[in-house]
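Incident log, structure service

09:12 report received: a user says their structure output differs between two submissions of the same chain.
09:20 pulled the input from the user's history:
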Amino acid sequence: MTRYARDEFDKVPETASRQGVHRTASAPSRVRLWPILAVGVAALAIGLVSFLILPKLGFSTAGDQASVSQEASPLAGTGSTPSATPDTSPSSVEPEPSAEAEPEPSASATAPALINKAQGVAIYNATGTAGLASRVGGTVQADGWTLGQVGNWSGSPQRTSIIFYSGAGQLAGAQALADLLGIPTLVNSTEFQVPLVVVLGPGYR
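09:34 re-ran on a clean worker, output below:
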C-alpha cells in the first residue's frame, strides 16, 4: 500500500496490458523459422540430387568414354584412319614377270680382232710340187694380203702344212690365213723375220 491517495491514474485494471503511464508490455518477439527451413530443404534436395543422380550420369559417361577409347585403340595401333569407301582392290597383286637381264657380251667377244693385211706374208713350198708356192701366193694376194718372200722351203722337212705367227698380236691374221688356205695347224714362233709364214707341207693341193 502506498501512503499517497489514489487518483485516476491508479484506476487501471489489473488484467490490462498497459503498465505504468508511458510503457506497454511488449509481446515476446517470435523468431521467423521459415527462411531457415527453406534453406535446409533446398540443401537437402541438392544433396539428394548429387548423391543419387550425378553418380549415375558419371558412370554412364565413363562407360561411353571407355567404349570410344576401345573403338579408337585399333586404329591407333595401325596408324591409319578408316576409309569411307570399301576397298575394291584385289587382296594380292601378282607382280609382273620381269624379263631376266641377259648378260651383255663383252667388247673383246663381240669386236672382231684387227687384221693387218698390209704386212708381208711369206709362203714356202715344202712339197715336190713345182709352182705350188706361187699359186698359193696368188690366192693370198687376191684376198688382199701383201706378199712377202715366195719360194721353196729350206728348213727341216715338214710332215704337214703349218702357219707360223709371231706373238698373240698375229694370231688373228694367222687364223684368217688358215681359213683361206684350209691349213688348221698354227704355231707361235719368233724364229722368222716376218710375222706370218705359210709352209706348204706334203699332201697340200
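09:41 both user submissions now match this output. Likely a transient worker issue. Closing.
09:42 reviewer note: The radius of gyration is 69 Å. Residues 50 and 56 are 10 Å apart (CA to CA).
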